[in-house]
Amino acid sequence: MTKKKPLVVVTRKLPEAIETRMMELFDARLNIDDAIMTKQELIDAVKEADVLVPTVTDKIDAAVLAHAGPNLRLIANFGTGVDHVDLQTARSRGITVTNTPDVLTEDTADMTMALILSVSRRLAEGERLIRKGDWAGWGPTLMLGHRIWGKRLGIVGMGRIGRALARRAKGFGLSVHYHNRRRVHSDIEDELDATYWESLDQMLAHVDVVSVNCPHTPATYHLLSARRLKLMQPHAILVNTARGEIVDEPALTRMLSDGEIAGAGLDVFEHEPAVNPKLLELQNAVLLPHMGSATIEGRVDMGEKVLINIKTFVDGHTPPDRVIEGLL
């Protein structure tokens, strides 16, 4: 007798190759229209699914998980961050959660470096000048930005992405400083010529560029609070490609508007997809629509991770990318 395939509910449209393989391996219910599922649709999904494949746009909280049916045993997240999933409730209900680490590292580090350059050299402002037809030709004082060679980069969170960013930063002549929950191994510090700051406050006051690369957890909510942002030097810039909730966005917006810090490059926002209207008015803010990992290769690799995690779990083994709360 043929074993029944598990019902896998996928909340968003994934790369075609991944969806095809998903259909071959499982009883997959796809989201062809790519419309973000409502809370009720998520509740309906967890009631009947064996496996749920959500993304960052799906809030899988206690209220949704309260309706989980007895068959739901795996949430295979399409993405590295799992702050949108109530891990404690999932664990209490015997539901395993997996994610897709490693495959987003290089793409996100590339985007972080791009934002550092964009803000420092005013690339977005220059592009807007051209498009508006306001460019009258080269001038000695036109669109002056700041050199990044020789500046200090402060990385908040020296995980995979933080280390990948540090390697890039070295090539651009930045000196690498970092704050992390735990100091990294001395071999990594030596490789990156990285200076460790036990005090985040002190690091913020001494660097020229701050890059947010830590995960969003209850402990990192508004880690860069209004008080901490005020420690940054007036010429400094902040780049965030992690999660918007890590930074006090209203405080950051006020400081950018008042010239208390020089600029910001943001790929994520505290209440996305909503963006603070005041941010939209600022010339010294480069704003991107959460596209740090948006490469074709990256998305396919993420999908492959999801497939492996589901197949391993369904076959009765511990999936390779199981999320453990205390290690985030």
By oligomeric state, this entry counts as single chain
Q: Give the neighbour order of strands across the main sheet.
A: 8-7-6-9-10-11-12
Radius of gyration: 21 Å
Give the percentage of residues in beta strands. Answer: 5-15%
Task: Give helix and strand order, one letter per element, not per position.
Answer: EHEHEHEHEHHEHEHEHEHEHEHEH
Describe the structure.
41% of the residues are buried. The protein is 36% helix and 13% strand. It has helices at residues 16-25, 39-48, 62-65, 87-92, 105-120, 123-131, 160-171, 186-192, 200-206, 226-229, 249-258, 277-280, 296-314; strands at 7-10, 27-29, 51-53, 74-76, 96-98, 152-156, 175-179, 194-196, 209-212, 237-240, 263-266, 285-287. The strands form 2 sheets. Strands 8-7-6-9-10-11-12 form a 7-stranded parallel beta sheet, sandwiched between helices. A 5-stranded parallel beta sheet has the order 2-1-3-4-5, sandwiched between helices. It has 13 helices and 12 strands. By secondary structure, it is of the alpha/beta class. Strand 1, helix 1 (16-25) and strand 2 form a beta-alpha-beta unit. Helix 5 packs across helix 7 (160-171). The mean pLDDT is 96.
The gist of it:
By secondary structure, the chain is of the alpha/beta class.
Main traits of this protein?
328 residues, 5-stranded parallel sheet, 7-stranded parallel sheet, single chain
Task: List the SSEs and their pairings.
Blueprint: E1 7-10, H1 16-25, E2 27-29, H2 39-48, E3 51-53, H3 62-65, E4 74-76, H4 87-92, E5 96-98, H5 105-120, H6 123-131, E6 152-156, H7 160-171, E7 175-179, H8 186-192, E8 194-196, H9 200-206, E9 209-212, H10 226-229, E10 237-240, H11 249-258, E11 263-266, H12 277-280, E12 285-287, H13 296-314
Helix pairs in contact: 1-13, 5-7
